[in-house]
Design brief:
This protein has twelve helices and eleven strands. By secondary structure, it is of the alpha/beta class. Helix 8 packs across helix 11. It binds nicotinamide-adenine-dinucleotide (NAD) and glycine.
């Protein structure tokens, strides 16, 4: 694949279908937005880090089509994925006299995308929105598939909606300014697609991780396209997570416990997911589903991507108990029983329960002493 070719991935959801466009030089090109509906006004939702880098160029690209372009700049960080930040978007929409046709543009990473998407889902009971993801994590996962949410102090992404964008514009050039730690965090959600769906992709990542970390354009283009294809396939079969879509949460049950237990923002979401995948792989092995060779291979790749592979201790008194307590709040839990995404065989995942004593052993083995 040549990195200068425009790649598109279709999300097929009947009347909610849309395209993901992938290439460099996209987000500030008016043609990227040509097919979008007309409106009197648009609101760009961004944050204090991404706004200064990219908001003006997006405004310019939209200015030929939309008469009034407003911008709201949110505080940056997972810790600000809250009602208060969400309200800043509603404040901007209402104070600028926005209406039902106003388009929202989510310009930023997954935090901005999830919040702008939730605002779009609920403002006037739903206005159209476009995702312009600027982190690797957002390009390969969060901007695609319509999950939107904010956090609650008692649980991550607990308040939200399924709401699909009109389009996703993945501009690979925006990844040039991404800090290395954030690139690695995004790679957790990339690596995830291997064990759950495509072991050939896992092998490709093993062979090409250095090129990806060096941000070689062709390598990034392949990573984003293949990840979006796999996600599109899953979401196309199960938009609202009544079954299959849960496999996309591989590593997330443990990972969300790490994020909530340490306090949001202490570890990056992708770091927690990477370590959560290590734990979920060990659980799969203890349940007799995969062998040590598979687990070691996955752990090695996660480490190679620059991600932590040892989980943090969340309590001096009863660490495993604290993990279990936090994981019972996971959205997949049913009547207090924690459900885990496990690897049934390399390339295939499913949701399973697991006895507490087995989970405790996994936590004890995976946490720092
Ligand atoms: P993020 O949005 O916090 O972005 C990471 C950091 O990079 C931030 O400081 C941001 O300001 C900065 N940044 C963004 N783009 C940049 C750029 N091009 N150059 C320089 N800095 C840039 O984090 P994230 O990893 O993108 O997203 C994590 C969030 O996504 C979590 O809240 C998670 O719950 C959510 N998520 C949602 C879904 C979904 O399906 N909706 C899936 C996975 C993750
Ligand atoms: N990131 C998990 C999902 O979109 O379902």
């Amino acid at each position: 694949m040549h990195s200068s070719d425009l790649q598109t991935v279709a999300i097929k959801l009947a009347e909610r279908s849309y395209h993901i466009a992938i290439r460099g030089s996209l987000f500030d090109n008016p043609l990227s937005y040509a097919e979008l509906p007309n409106a009197h006004s648009v609101l760009i939702v961004t944050n204090t880090t991404v706004g200064p880098l990219y908001a003006e160029r997006l405004q310019r690209a939209l200015s030929g089509k939309y008469p009034r372009i407003h911008t709201v700049v949110l505080p940056d960080g997972e810790v600000f994925k809250t009602w208060e930040s969400l309200n800043l978007i509603f404040d901007a929409l209402l104070s600028h006299g926005c209406d039902r046709k106003t388009l929202l543009f989510a310009l930023g990473g997954g935090v901005v995308g999830d919040m702008a998407g939730f605002a779009a889902a609920s403002f006037m009971r739903g206005v159209p929105f476009v995702q312009v993801p600027t982190t690797l994590l957002a390009q390969v996962d969060s901007s695609v598939g319509g999950k939107t949410a904010i956090n609650h102090p008692l649980g991550k992404n607990m308040i939200g909606a399924f709401y699909q964008p009109l389009k996703v514009v993945c501009d690979l050039d925006t990844l040039k300014t991404l800090p290395a730690r954030e690139l690695s965090a995004g790679l957790a959600e990339v690596i995830k697609y291997g064990p759950i769906a495509d072991m050939d992709f896992l092998a490709w990542l093993e062979a090409n991780m250095d090129a990806v970390l060096a941000r070689e354009p062709a390598a990034l283009a392949h990573v984003v396209k293949r990840s979006c294809e796999i996600k599109a396939d899953v979401v196309g079969q199960d938009e609202r997570e009544s079954g299959l879509r849960a496999i996309l949460n591989f590593g997330h049950t443990f990972g969300h416990a790490i994020e909530a237990g340490l306090g949001y923002g202490e570890w990056l979401h992708g770091e927690a997911v990477g370590c959560g995948m290590v734990m979920a792989a060990h659980l799969s092995q203890r349940l007799g589903l995969v062998d040590a060779f598979f687990v070691n291979r996955l752990v090695h790749l996660i480490q190679k991507a620059g991600l932590p592979i040892k989980a943090p201790s969340l309590s001096d008194a009863d660490n495993a108990g604290r993990y279990l307590e936090l994981m019972r709040l996971d959205k997949k839990s049913e009547a207090g029983e924690i459900k885990f995404v496990v690897i049934e065989q390399p390339g295939r995942a499913a949701v399973h329960g697991a006895p507490d004593d087995v989970v405790r052993k996994v936590i004890d083995a995976c946490c720092v002493a």
